[in-house]
Amino acid sequence: MGMSVTISAATERDAEQIFRLQYLCFQSEAALYANYRIDPLVQTLDSVREEVAADCVFVARLGDEVVGSVRGRVTEDGAASIGKLCVHPRLQGHGIGARLLRAAESALVEERGAKRFRLHTGHRSEGNLRLYRRVGYQTVGTAEGTDGVPMIVLEKPAEAYATTA
Predict the structure, then answer these.
(1) What is the model's pTM?
(2) With CB atoms counted within 10 Å of each terminal CB, which end of the chain scores lower, N or C?
(3) How far is 157 from 118, CA to CA, in rounded Å?
(4) Are strands 56-62 and 65-74 parallel, antiparallel or unpaired?
(5) Can you spell out the DSSP letters for 79-143?
(6) Sign of the C-alpha dihedral computed for residues 99, 23, 112 and 156 taken in this order
């Protein structure tokens, strides 16, 4: 391939690529649930721009192309909510998702004071669940997404991010 994937903070210039990548990546999730109205597929470009401006957003790049992204923000209870982790289908299975998670976790603790991390994924999303458990997340409950998809909620303490970095 000749180039390596780099992880960096997203900028406003990345919003459109993140938006397109998210739409591509979440097609397989939509198919799992026969629901093409899941949140990542109906999010607007303006909303992605707002998240890039306000939240902790990281991208994986291969040259100039955004091939992965993740978002996080600290909620009122001190937990860092991590979401919309996605990696281009042709690059999945090479550790990029775990690298994106580590970057987000590190920034959320060091820059925003997160005390623990929380994320959720669809109950049928076995690949996602394997990744999250491999990097230290544990199931703490279930919820229903705003799109009606049954979700598994996972958490890990913020001090655990150093052990997965």
Answers:
(1) 0.92
(2) N
(3) 9
(4) antiparallel
(5) EEEEEEEEE-GGGTTSSHHHHHHHHHHHHHHHTT--SEEEEEEETT-HHHHHHHHHTT-EEEEEE
(6) negative
Q: Which of 131, 132, 135 is nearest to 164 (CA)?
A: 135
The token duo for 64 is 């100039």
Nearest-angstrom CA–CA distance, 28 and 48: 20
Q: Over the stretch 70-114, which tens digit does the pLDDT of each residue have?
A: 999 998 888 999 999 999 999 999 999 999 999 999 999 999 989
In terms of Cα–Cα distance, which of 100, 110, 107, 111 is closest to 135? Answer: 100
Cβ–Cβ < 8 Å for 111, 71:
no
Distance between CA atoms of 67 and 3, rounded to whole angstroms? 13
What's the CA gap between 56 and 141, in Å, rounded? 25
